[in-house]
User: Fold Lipoprotein from Streptomyces gancidicus BKS 13-15.
Amino acid sequence: RDDPAATGGTAREHPSATAPAAGAPGATGTAQGRPATEAPAAIPGLGPRTRAWIPATARQVVVVTGRDRDANRSQAVLYRHTGTGWEAGPVWPARNALRGWTDDHWAGDLRSPIGVYTLTDAGGLLPDPGTRLPYDRSDGFAVSGTGFEGEPLEGSFDYVVAIDYNRVPGTSPLDLTRPLGADRGGGIWLHVDHDGPTQGCVSLSEQHMRDLLRALDPALHPVVVMGDAASLRE
Assistant:
């Protein structure tokens, strides 16, 4: 995964990147919850270019908004379309790649790819917590070693949702097929936070990963919109 990956139980990067699966790199996404009765017609913080990348079929959108282009701290919000507008879930603290964000991701650049990507597959070292996504429970998600700030990586891949960047949707997150080639990076996941920046993934607390896995519904065609705030506002 472009994060410390889990093969052979040691931390490594999964090189491979593909062009945005659902859209292209893009704009801002803030996330403040509103009562359902006030659900906005458009997701707050997303500019026209970013909104244009979101598939018309998407009824669940995870918006990950970075503080700025070079920041590795961000926030995530799951939005659900109610029929009249977009209802926001809670704001979840998140981490992203060490050097921030990029709209031209390459393996080893230590930046998370900006864009809109489908969310089709999940997995983890731990048993399925109750997701409706296909879930691959595998020892291949075991990871060891330490992160950029000396924090242990063990447990980072207990729960994973694959972000469909340079991968084949409908396969395990562990699948190494990279349609754009290994040099474009890949293995970009939503996974459990290890209390430090990632190599390219987005991380949430273990509880929030469980909540996300239980909420995502393939029938609602979920996508993730991710990037720094200024880019997402475009």
Observations:
- The chain has one domain: 36-77+85-222.
- Residues 14 and 169 are 16 Å apart (CA to CA).
- The chain has a mean pLDDT of 88.
